Amino acid sequence: MVKKNLVIAHGGGPTPVINASLAGVIMEAQKHTKIDKILAARGGIEGLLAGNLTDLSDMSPEDIDLLKNTPGSAIGTCRYKVTEKDYSRTTDVLQKHNIGYFFYNGGNDSMDTCHKVSLLANDIAVIGIPKTIDNDLGGTDHCPGFGSAARYAAVTALELGMDIRALPIHVCVLEIMGRNAGWLVGATALARTQGFKAPQLICFPERPFDEGKFLNDVQRLWDSQKGIVIAASEGLVDHKGNTIADSGLTDGFGHKIPGGVAQTLSNLIISKLHIKSRSEKPGLIGRASKLLVSPVDREEAFEAGKISVQQAASGKTGFMVGIKRLSNDPYRVKFELVELDKVANYEKKLPDHFINADGNNVTDEFIEYCRPLTGGDFPDYFNIDNYE
Amino acid sequence: MVKKNLVIAHGGGPTPVINASLAGVIMEAQKHTKIDKILAARGGIEGLLAGNLTDLSDMSPEDIDLLKNTPGSAIGTCRYKVTEKDYSRTTDVLQKHNIGYFFYNGGNDSMDTCHKVSLLANDIAVIGIPKTIDNDLGGTDHCPGFGSAARYAAVTALELGMDIRALPIHVCVLEIMGRNAGWLVGATALARTQGFKAPQLICFPERPFDEGKFLNDVQRLWDSQKGIVIAASEGLVDHKGNTIADSGLTDGFGHKIPGGVAQTLSNLIISKLHIKSRSEKPGLIGRASKLLVSPVDREEAFEAGKISVQQAASGKTGFMVGIKRLSNDPYRVKFELVELDKVANYEKKLPDHFINADGNNVTDEFIEYCRPLTGGDFPDYFNIDNYE
Predict the structure, then answer these.
(1) Residues of the domain holding B368
(2) Which of B290, B293, B380 is the best residue to mutate to test the A interface, defined by the most A CB atoms within 10 Å of its own CB?
């Protein structure tokens, strides 16, 4: 039997569970006798091209378990897109290190790189492992990483709502990641549980920001209740597609420095409605929390890693491991292979049937879609409205 | 035996454990036969003046336990300072509701209100319960609420550092609460554990912000390592005492709208050093997290509530329950009574011996002071630098 080495690299931003997929790859690969070394590229495909590899073959079960439960990317990552000029170097490196199995864990840009590598390397099994907190990857019902970031977004909106309503002097705008897709900001709607009502308003990047309508919504809410939380996507744009958060500043090269969406909205509420307002922006913290990982998401990420190795070992190449939902209650999924060229470079936005007609809330259908991914019940809180 | 009612109110911003003190008050008061009803003012002293009271006398042990483990202020709070014009109304309300025991849970402003009530009401036992995440209250080694917010600040800096170093293209500025005191921003130094190095720089409100020195520090760090986290206090001021975060905007009444400190520093790094930078501002989220409560802090808050009732029942009045540290290892404290007029309106800054000579880090002495308050070990993370 010809033994070949395995290499795995991470692409794009880290997630709370990208290491869980890595743990799944390592644990599964250790079982396959035809896989020799288990190598990790340090710093994504750029690290691979530079030959920056670490041998993880003998990782202990304890370390694999700790890795599975660690957010961030333990082996680093990059935002580099492979282009034609890198092709010969890529094949050289793969050959030099006797690679037979190549795994790239990432989002839509990374799946493009993964697809290119699969076309270049005929004798190598190339499999993509899906990953993005933004959930904007095609070919899969949802993407590992999203469920945990959604749990963070929802629990954070809930806890912020509890804080704000205790001293209800502000409208508080909470900025949520997700780039151009509203999946994550929509997930804040799950905070409305245990009798709590925040967020009272959601702003999606799929709906052009309309200042007049927004201010009407805020004033109407303020007139009827205090302690309001607005969840706003970092990707909010106006009717022309420009960010609403222009800081007015430029960097040393003349490029615009973006401002914060939440702070922009907060300033608008202060200056136009004369209502006190503040903004919070957890930003990257929202994709790095160990304690708010969704157990469902972690296990799916781990499985996706394991299944990638199984499929590559059985000779499959040029696919991404996708997730197909079989049922919502009980929540059941199966993993399936999706051709890489069908997912590369495609950005899956939040569809219309998940946003209400008014454009400021999700639909019940979205709640049903999202809830199981966040891993079941949130922590319990005392709510005096439920008392007696 | 003359039975009298008890009333408790919360003042100032909520903390993750202010409800734990409330739970301690309720649990203890239920044991005292001379205490009749246990009343909570809804919305702080303002709620009390408006006669907005809720009867919590019969709260079940299960609800008390849930309350003890719930961040935010379950009974609301306010920022209202009692002045002479409220005196007669205050005594009227206390008399009307047959109050014999008055508890105010808050920071230095609230202790001022508590002191005034103690002078007004001769036949009422008035006790202050300390509370502030800022830790700027005098008369006590530390203040309930601080340990949990410190745990949040440290774990968040740790997790943010893990995320940032995986894709080390930015300097990331993390904004930390604490108003004019550097206790909380200093606590981020506890993140340097398990082989992790963030935050690499700390900016204290006790040290006037010096742009040149700051930029030198950042450039020097960037030249030697990537993936840098800077922890910056929300209260940073320049040599004249003015906030460094002026948004340049005014509200409808001509008052300045403050900008964000972290975003201001981030913009500075981009425009002056041409290094990519971003900022995160968890803000109120940092005082509202259930999962990052310090168990030590929660128990101390609970004890402070219980002891307040014991002291009031034994006839003490005009005091705050303070905490005196007996030893660090093992960590031991005792509770003691501090005269209210000695703590009212005083703001305890981070002392010089807790800040290093360069003004950009804490001292080991601060780490020893702070660590036990955060409740012991943080979650475990896999760090590839420790692997092999």
Answers:
(1) 146-290+351-387
(2) B290
